[in-house]
Amino acid sequence: MTFPCSRTTAARGLAAHLLAGLTTIGLTAGPGASSALSADSRPNIVLVYADDLGYGDVGCYGATAVATPAIDRLAQE
User: Are 59 and 67 in contact (CB under 8 A)?
Assistant: First the structure.
């Protein structure tokens, strides 16, 4: 039995929907979304998306094969 789309196509569609959802959440929960919260009570959230990168591949976790100064600086802060 054949199906109209491959797993790759389905995965791309899922990734696109996930990205659209995260973008929507980010835009609706961004600055000015709620005037009841003070500036100090908002959490600092940084989402770093990198393809084919594991937690052991960045310098802040001890890796030395590839230099990752920007990610290391974010981890230090």
Answer: yes
Tell me the whole-structure pTM to 2 decimals: 0.40
Residues 8-19 have pLDDT tens digits of 777 777 788 788
CB–CB of 60/73 below 8 Å? no
Tokens of 48: 């770093």
**Cβ–Cβ under 8 Å, residues 62 and 56:** yes
CA-to-CA dists, residue 34 to 30, 42, 54, angstroms: 9, 10, 35
Cα-Cα-Cα-Cα torsion 45, 23, 31, 35, nearest 10 degrees, comes to -110
One DSSP character per residue, 3-70 reads: -SS-HHHHHHHHHHHHHHHHHHHHHHSSTTS-TTS-GGGS--------TT--GGGSGGGT--SS--HH
